[in-house]
Design goal:
mainly alpha
């Protein structure tokens, strides 16, 4: 088990900053990142809102690609590598997946 804060620190920067600002109890423990997102704060009480966090949760839980579309700022949440070649989107929890694979 990890704390909410530990799980949120594994998100990529754009999501991590928002999740850390919204978390209500950084020391509560969860078995999964999805659990931390689901229980780390009240989605309706955040500036991003319920639909935003539901999209984040669904990508983590079910692998559904989440692409925020409500504002210009949110449209820039996807990290792009190597702009001179084909653009590659990075999922919100790709860093987490990379760490999980390295620990096996």
């Amino acid at each position: 088990m990890k704390t909410t804060e530990e799980w949120f620190n594994q998100l990529n920067e754009a999501y991590k900053d928002k999740a850390l600002k919204n978390m209500t109890d950084p020391k509560s423990e969860h078995y999964t990142l999805a659990g931390a997102i689901s229980n780390g704060f009240v989605w309706n009480d955040t500036p991003e809102g319920k639909d935003y966090w539901n999209g984040v949760f669904r990508e983590v839980m079910y692998g559904e690609k989440f692409e925020p579309k409500d504002s210009v700022i949110e449209s820039n949440l996807i990290e792009v590598k190597n702009l001179s070649k084909k653009k590659k989107s990075k999922s919100l929890f790709e860093d987490f997946e990379d760490q999980s694979l390295e620990s096996k």
